[in-house]
Amino acid sequence: MAMTTFPAGQSGPRLPELLAPAGNAEKLITAVHYGADAVYLGGKAFSLRARAANFDEDGLRWAVAYAHERGVKVYVTVNIFAHNRDLEHLEPYLLLLRHIGIDGCIVGDPGILATARRLVPELSLHLSTQANVTNTASARFWAEQGVRRLNLARELGLAEIRAIRAATPIELEVFVHGALCISYSGRCLLSQYLTGRNANQGDCAHPCRYAYAVVEEKRPGQYFPVEEDQHGTYIFNSRDLCLLDRLPLLIDAGVDAVKIEGRMKSAGYVGAVVRLYRLALDWIREQLFSGQSPVSLVLPEAFHKELSKIGTRGRTENFFAASPSSGDMLYDRMRFEQRFVPVGIIRAATPFLIETRHAIAVGDRVEYLGRTIEPETATVSAIRLEDGTPAQRANPGRRVLLQTEPPLATIEPHALLRKQIESA
Length: 424
Ligand code: SF4
Prior knowledge:
By secondary structure, the chain is of the alpha/beta class. The protein is built from 10 helices and 21 strands. The chain folds into 2 domains: 17-180 and 238-328, Alpha-Beta Barrel (TIM Barrel); 340-420, Elongation Factor Tu (Ef-tu), domain 3 (Beta Barrel). A hairpin with a 6-residue loop joins strand 16 (365-369) and strand 17 (376-385). The longest helix has 23 residues, at 267-289.
């Protein structure tokens, strides 16, 4: 299954924009390589995800130029809930974003929104999911405030999304993949309370993933485990959102953009997820073009096989069809399960040069993530350092030349290589 090409002059049925996270330059390049229509990223200020590398002024200029040259849009997050002290540098920052030519600004705070409307009225405003739009009246309200797009609350089901779509022409964006807060879309003081790191300033330490115990107040130091089974229990630990199979229904509902969470995740993760959703959307488009109804579409098994190779805490469709239950939680572990790891990002095709992300050794079976859903597999037959010295293995963070057997049919710079670390 390859990416779809339509006959000249026929663009095919309209698909939602695929919106990908870009926590740094490498993740942006990877997301663009694998077919994101738009990326969202943060500057050094006013952006949730304080611990992502984010982009300084030069970085923002570069990001916009790089993306625009490839027909990709850039939305910049200005989505903290601001205190007065945060506002000091807001106006120059908004003017800078307009000057740089970003395609939209993601805001959540009404004060920041009002400032942007007054100061840079031509800048498109997207409402952050943290503003918690869950109903048609709220959607209309934000439309009247000049918001162009709503990133709907994650706590909505399909019927509610359809109702909001029917009630207002405002652009609708829906999260389809990534980590979930157990609290109401990040409105949570757990991290601030336990670690001093403020979730609503983008600095969450994710204490909802920790293992907890009970202490009786007159027995300090004696911890009574809270146990579901022999693994203990992680009482606030949600599975990850995955609406891959629901893409046809979201298209049928008239959603304008589907969004992937993960500015803090690795480039390997971002690339694999963007690639999966790009290929799924293109497959759906092909089916729609041939006259099929979106509601009857079922993604082929190859997509599920690929999904199973992407790291996760388990998967849930959250509120999509019904309210989540205990089955949507992950009580027995906090760990991100990962059977496959990215071993390298390709830097050049000739010679075949990769930058390693995990150790790689001669004899490793690797998968090349290309433009079709089935990865191309090969065995590493030789490794050389850049000066030509042969090596049996390379540690993470090295630039090495590879040979594989058989040679890979296609090698594109920015593509990913991965390998299995556990048996299926
Ligand atoms: S601690 Fe968990 S629930 Fe709270 S904001 Fe952080 S990720 Fe969300």
